[in-house]
Design goal:
Helices cover 27% and strands 17% of the residues. It has 211 residues and is α/β, with parallel strands linked by helices. The protein folds into 2 domains: 83 residues, no CATH class; 112 residues. A 6-stranded mixed β-sheet has the order 3-4-5-8-7-6, with helices on one face. The chain has a two-stranded parallel sheet with strand order 1-2. Strand 1, helix 2 and strand 2 form a beta-alpha-beta unit.
């Protein structure tokens, strides 16, 4: 199945990344070892299929958690190091960046905090301080990209500018550490005046990363 999917993608449209998500239920319930084994096997099948068809894109992992509850870094020991690992912050952004990122070495790591949460889309959401905190934590854990979850664009413009103008207020950034810069969603546009950070809006996501 993966071979057919990947071959069709090759022939029909350009793609940078193919995201494989683990179940949302891994956030709140115990996960049987058998389910973790099936998930790991499925990912390895996708890796083999991508290699066989010479897929021109990179496989990545994501989920509401970084990995299995018993060991968030488990997949790091079995999947190729060129695969980025990522996860969103739990609790629609009220939970900090996953500390387990610090235990993953030698691969791209993408932290995905929430710039706003969907239950409160009809209300103002002023999360500048939380954005700065999430960015600092992501750098502390060695993450190479910060991707913000959001639905709206214009209303978040000033919020996204503040961390850039403040240089995140960290010595790590002053010493030259930066998130890796790569292209964002197709059709996205850069918001001006962000200093070391770029915020790319479009396709339902804002890619906030110093370059």
């Amino acid at each position: 199945m993966y071979e057919g999917m990947f071959e069709r993608i090759k022939r029909t449209h350009p793609l940078d990344y193919f995201w494989m998500w683990t179940p949302e239920s891994w956030t709140w319930q115990d996960v049987p070892n058998e389910e973790v084994t099936r998930t790991e096997k499925d990912m390895l099948l996708a890796v083999a299929a991508a290699k066989k068809v010479k897929a021109p894109f990179t496989l990545t992992t994501c989920g509401w958690v970084l990995g299995p509850p018993k060991d968030r870094a488990q997949f790091d020991r079995v999947l190729p190091k060129e695969m980025p690992f990522s996860c969103i912050n739990r609790g629609v952004g009220f939970t900090p960046v996953e500390p387990g990122f610090a235990n993953i070495k030698g691969r791209p790591k993408w932290a995905i905090p929430w710039l706003e949460d969907d239950p409160a889309l009809i209300s103002p959401q002023l999360w500048v301080g939380r954005m700065r905190k999430d960015a600092v934590e992501a750098l502390t854990y060695g993450c190479t990209r910060l991707i913000g979850i959001q639905w709206r664009t214009r209303i978040l413009g000033h919020q996204c500018q503040c961390p850039g103008q403040g240089r995140l207020g960290t010595r790590r950034l002053e010493q030259g550490q930066r998130f890796q810069g790569t292209t964002g969603p197709a059709g996205g546009g850069l918001l001006p005046g962000l200093g070391p950070e770029s915020v790319r809006s479009g396709s339902g996501a804002a890619d906030c990363r110093p370059i």
